[in-house]
Amino acid sequence: MINNIHDTTILNNGVKMPWFGIGVFKVEEGPELIQAVKFAINHGYRSIDTAAIYGNEEGVGQGIREGIQEVGISREELFVTSKVWNADLGYESTLAAYETSLKKLGLDYLDLYLIHWPVAGEYKDAWRALETLYKEGRIKAIGVSNFQVHHLEDLMKDAEINPMINQVEYHPRLNQKEVQAFCREHGIQLEAWSPLMQGQLLDHPVLQEIAKKYNKTVAQVILRWDLQNGVVTIPKSTKEHRIVENSTIFDFELTTEDIQQINTLNKNHRVGPDPDNFDF
Predict the structure, then answer these.
(1) Which residues contact 199 (CB under 8 A, 6 or more apart)?
(2) Does residue 121 or residue 186 have the better pLDDT?
(3) Beta strands 16-18 and 47-49, pairing class
(4) Domain CATH for 164
(5) What is the C-alpha to C-alpha distance for residues 63 and 47, in angstroms, rounded to an integer?
(6) Residue 268 falls in which region: left (phi positive, over 0), alpha (psi -120 to 50) or beta
(7) Is 119 part of a structural domain of the chain?
(8) pTM beyond 0.90, yes or no
(9) Cα–Cα distance list, 130 to 5, 13, 110, 157, 167 (Å)
(10) Which residues are catalytic?
(11) Residue 57 domain-assigned?
(12) How many domains does the chain have?
């Protein structure tokens, strides 16, 4: 059982990654963002996920610096992720994008760097760049985001190093069964973005009933479901009480019946773009 916010999964290269973290998608630069990162660090979060396209790496970096100083921990105790955007997916442009992200974040290295989307004909050059950075010791782990099975198969045909992570939209309405099975088979850790389906599941009667049974919120039940399915999760929030609430999921465990019941809610429904039809 995953029973602590500091519990980690071991990636296929031996690197430890927290099972639980915070995402900052669509959080604009400014005091709210900086404060959210600090709140998270203060409340035990050790994994922070951003991306070049979010336009907020500078604020995330400032929040990290201020947060670790307040709490008295080292940079090495955090797991920081960013992603290369579609417009930069060439070999040289990916290398340059990495340097830009590091500079904005004010960091010497990233724990995880991802290809954000599987843009047709572009991601293999970007992957070679990630392999180069990884072999040079500039990144602790490399991976992809929004890759479906056929994208992974195509990438791995020519890759020297298999991805360590595949971060995908994942929630009870989109449980990514085939992707998850493929990732398990090949030692790739699945990670959930939009685990709460942007709040669209909070009124669902099945989830409300399960939440009532444990005296938890629907959000807490969904996040616990992620972890018990072996999926790393990074819910987004800027409010301190939500950041705390989201992380209060380590004192209960869903039954097999609960998990099966939640699994039946799958409709293969996305709130984000379809990876097969998304370029920019």
Answers:
(1) none
(2) 186
(3) unpaired
(4) 3.20.20.100
(5) 13
(6) left
(7) yes
(8) yes
(9) 29, 14, 11, 16, 16
(10) 54
(11) yes
(12) 1
208: tokens are 């409300």
Q: What is the pLDDT of residues 46-67, one digit of tens each?
A: 999 999 999 999 999 999 999 9
Does 191 have pLDDT greater than 70? yes
Between the alpha carbon of residue 256 and those of residues 225, 260, 262, 268, the distances in Å are 10, 6, 10, 22
70 assigned to some structural domain: yes
3-state secondary structure of 49: strand
Q: Is 254:225 a contact under the CB 8 Å cutoff?
A: yes
Query: Whole domain around residue 51: which residue ranges?
Result: 8-267
Helix then strand then coil, in percent of the chain rounded to 5, is 45, 15, 40
Helix, strand or coil, per DSSP, at residue 236 = strand
Tokens 């830009």 sit at which residue?
A: 100
Over the stretch 211-226, which tens digit does the pLDDT of each residue have? 999 999 999 999 999 9
* pLDDT tens digits, 86-96: 999 999 999 99
Contact 5, 44 (CB under 8 A): yes
Structure tokens at 225: 């479901």
| Domain membership flag for residue 277 | no
Query: Is residue 239 within 8 Å of residue 27, measured between CB atoms?
Result: no
Q: Are strands 16-18 and 8-10 parallel, antiparallel or unpaired?
A: antiparallel
The pair of three-digit structure tokens given for residue 224, joined into one six-digit string = 């616990």
23-38 in b/e burial notation, b at 16+ Cβ within 10 A?
bbbebeeeeebbbbbb
Instruction: Please compute the mean of the pLDDT values over residues 110-133 and round it to a whole number.
Output: 96
